[in-house]
Design goal:
By secondary structure, the chain is of the alpha/beta class. Helix content is 39%, strand content 17%. The strands form three sheets. An eight-stranded parallel barrel has the order 3-4-5-6-7-8-11-12, surrounded by five helices. A two-stranded antiparallel sheet has the order 1-2. GO terms for molecular function: oxidoreductase activity.
Length: 363
């Protein structure tokens, strides 16, 4: 489990190598504002080897956030993260490990008949109630998330997962009303509160793709205020002193800046962007798609933005733009190859944009 003392010791070891605000607060500890993402890549042994080497290098270079999910690369990403944690010359307690549950994962490779495999492995065995399954592949019911959390602990070879996300809950909106989704989240949050009390997770949150960056009338919209309210209710139901709901994950980059520009969340003083709502609510924000899945590394930032952002390469500028947004704790970057680690980590040697400069981009 990540601890305060170990993360501060990690910062002491690497802090002088980076620019201001590279390390940021997470609870009582600190984490790097550049993190390792493990979504992209083929489910092959060769990709596993490259990921393992890249994660070890990142952990030994000043990055102490690793993000994965049980469905990424058919559970291979979680397993490689566990292997890298064991192989790296880095204190496990200095590393924030995050994973997610929601999408039904295959096991090692994609089966020839995915629908039949899911039915036989999950529905027929009782792990998933067919009525809870949306689009044939997504479930956030408490018993299912319980099962997935256990599998993730085994894949990662950990006693405690530091941050566990309910993965893309907006997927459920294809078949259910928003109120029904909030009700389901409350039930699942209650189970996660219980698992936190038992020490299996330290904190939890929601990882989204569309829900927290679209207007309120969008079919994929979810209210962060309502999600937080349901988490507080869940903590009371679990008889915990306070909620363990502490983080959200969402896409953010220069071409997907909706979490800053769209004021669709209802704050205490009116409509706010998700980033400002999360900041006011004391939530940590982890941004995904910092490079727009590689597009910004190839094309670069728009010229008028690039001239404001420090960095020696397109990728570094894109990463620095993402981690300049208000309230962002860490920006995740896919590091499936050791060739990319040095460049991505070096983004942190450049300072992010100040608040005024960041705001000016959108004026």
């Amino acid at each position: 489990m990540v601890t305060r003392d170990a993360t501060w010791a990690y910062r002491e070891k690497f802090g002088d190598e980076f620019a201001r605000t590279y390390f940021r607060r997470f609870g009582e500890g600190v984490v790097s504002s550049v993190g390792v993402g493990t979504y992209l890549g083929d489910p092959t042994d060769e990709a596993d080897d490259a990921y393992r080497e890249a994660i070890v290098e990142a952990l030994q270079s000043g990055v102490n956030v690793v993000d994965t999910a049980i469905n990424y690369r058919n559970q291979r990403s979680e397993r490689v993260v566990g292997e890298a944690l064991e192989a790296a010359d880095t204190d496990r307690e200095a590393v924030l490990v995050a994973t997610k549950g929601g999408f039904v994962p295959f096991d090692g490779e994609r089966p020839d008949n995915p629908g039949r495999w899911i039915r036989e492995a999950y529905v027929d065995t009782g792990v998933v109630d067919a009525d809870d399954l949306v689009a044939g592949q997504h479930c956030i019911a408490p018993d299912y998330i319980d099962d997935q959390l256990d599998r993730s602990l085994e894949n990662l070879d950990l006693d405690t997962i530091d941050l566990y996300y309910v993965h893309n809950p907006e997927t459920q909106l294809a078949d259910r009303s928003p109120e029904a989704v909030y009700d389901q989240l409350e039930e699942t949050f209650t189970r996660l509160e219980e698992r936190a009390a038992e020490g299996d997770i330290r904190q939890y949150g929601v990882a989204t793709w569309e829900a927290l960056r679209v207007p309120g009338d969008d079919d994929s919209y979810l209210s962060l205020a309502e999600i937080v309210s349901r988490a507080r209710t869940a903590a009371k139901r679990a008889e915990n002193a306070a909620t363990h709901f502490r983080a959200v994950q969402l896409p953010f980059n220069v071409v997907m800046a909706d979490a800053f520009t769209v004021e669709a969340q209802e704050g205490s003083e009116g409509a706010q962007s998700t980033l400002w709502f999360a900041h006011d609510a004391g939530l940590n924000v982890f941004t995904s798609a910092s490079l727009a899945q590689g597009k910004l590394a190839r094309a670069g930032l728009p010229e008028d933005v690039a001239e404001r952002v420090e960095g020696e390469t397109n990728a570094q500028q894109a990463i620095n733009f993402a981690r300049s947004a208000p309230g962002v704790t860490c920006s995740l970057v896919g590091m499936g190859s050791p060739d990319h680690v040095a460049e991505n980590v070096a983004a942190g040697t450049h300072p992010p944009l100040g608040a005024d400069s960041f705001d000016a981009v959108f004026e």
